[in-house]
Amino acid sequence: MTDETDKPDISGTTPRRRSKPDILEIGGRPLKPSTLMMGHGFDPMLSEGSLKPPIFLTSTFVFESAAAGKRHFEGVTGKRPGGAEGLVYSRFNGPNQEIAEDRLGVWENAEEALTFSSGMSAIATVLLTFVKPGDVIVHSAPLYAATETLIGRILGKFGVSWVDFPAGATPDEIDAVVDKAKAMGRVAMIYLESPANPTNVLVDVEAVSTVRDTHFGTGEDRPPIVIDNTFLGPLWHHPLKHGADIVVYSLTKYAGGHSDLVAGGALGTKAHMTMVRAMRNTIGTILDPHSAWMLVRSLETLELRMERAGQNAEKICTWLRDQPKVEKVVYLGFPETERQADIYRRHCHGAGSTFSLYLKGGEKEAFAFLDALRIAKLAVSLGGTETLASHPAAMTHLSVPDERKKALAISDNMVRISIGVEDADDLIADFEQALAAI
Length: 438
Prior knowledge:
The protein is α/β, with parallel strands linked by helices.
């Protein structure tokens, strides 16, 4: 949860959507994000008194004057910093998208936020913003398989190379990898995913930030640290506080939270987001109005959903780790090493609700367990209201070479589980009968 002392900075929000300033504090006490989700960034009086924002299904917007149109395009094209002062065209901006972006920024206390058509479009747009042919990307490992494919295969076609370090690496190990990368070319970015997908290992963002600044200084030309915060954000982890520059999300997951939309996000400083917005404007990866409207709906209950799922996961993982057919449960609430425990204490506000379950046996036993589930759904993705279970080695990470999967502990006996908001005891009963089927 957001700290008591946090006060959201909304200096980048768009005043045209409100006839009066938002209420951000009462009696000197800053309002919490869960309260701001109910109205921040939208004035009903500007939309016929509608309590909730309407869906603005339009491709283009009418300018109040030719001079206003010029000003808006100066912002869109980057001739004037800060983005458009008004609505221009739905490939660039729109009311639903900007309301969602304002509210997303509150959770991370970010200067600015942008929405995208998917998590991967957010990641791809950020990478294309900062990386050019001949550059080197340093990243933690493992990453979501599509992200690894984008970096290794797609960008590799254009002369971009990469080098990685294990998610739980020590400062010395991170330093050695960055040193190696510098010898390969210009380091354009340090890309992280914490906890790692699907192994649930945390990255020490503070250590990465310290190593980066030691090698490249603290100027604006240093490579940005970008982190995928999908597994824990925005409730249980706030990477911008620990040295990250840009946070990316699959908003399909916890932020959307109902398994009924696909969306992505990127949050960070105004300077970085101005650059990312220019790329988004060019390649057209903005979120559509209807999905943005659904996302705003979901953000109202984000804290409630995540807290319930987190409580369920703690109870279920405590039960699972004592079962005789379970080899181990990799859950942030049970750190396997003192190093992971230290990172967890410094970085996290909760253990999340997605974890890795290693069964005794191999693919046969894992498949038998998955096929026997009755409440939990056999499906990829995570962070929804329903409990989901999948087999990373055979599904989301199937394209990862076998040797790399072995090195990253993505084994045939691994099952990834995302706990939802059902009754915890009912889920335990489901897992118990599924284990009995092995």
